[in-house]
Amino acid sequence: xxxxxxxxCPVGIRAPTGPVRPVIGPAPRAHGAGAYCVxxxxxxxxRRVGKALAVTVVATAxxxxxxxxxxxxxxxxxxxxxxxxxxxxxxxxxFTAAILNTVLAMPLVLWIGMRLLRERRVxxxxxxxxxxxFITVGHGIDLIDDGIGTLLPLWSLAAFAxxxxxxxxxxxxxxxxxx
Length: 179
What we know:
The chain is mainly alpha-helical. The protein contains 4 helices and 3 strands; from the N terminus they run E-E-E-H-H-H-H. It has helices at 44-82, 91-116, 123-144, 154-167, and strands at 2-4, 21-26, 36-41. The two termini are 24 Å apart. 23% of the residues are buried.
């Protein structure tokens, strides 16, 4: 975040809020010579929670899509069996595959996402996310099992995302001393 202290600093920048560390230095050349800006470095914990929120939202969307598609396949299998056709798989097999796919995808996407964003020590977040997703799906499966295109309750998705994001703060990486 940058805070203007002179007329040549970027426009539309707001004043610092929260725990920040100011670093004073010359403004980029595009903003004029001799102008100074205060460059604010946000807290590493805030950045980590922001990354965790982004990854959790993406992981939830992917896992929910796998769950919804698997459950719709289960409904189609049951419908075709009721009409007398020989389905390629039974509804129970499709249901079990949907649950397994979504529960296995959640920790994998959480871990890969946080590692791509260069975060280390994400194991508690992955563990809490996997267990939390299993619990969230377990409590909401009756609501989405009966129809195609239904969603898990938004309050449970929001609670899952909040708990998973906050669990990213359990083990924060140690600062590197080898630089």
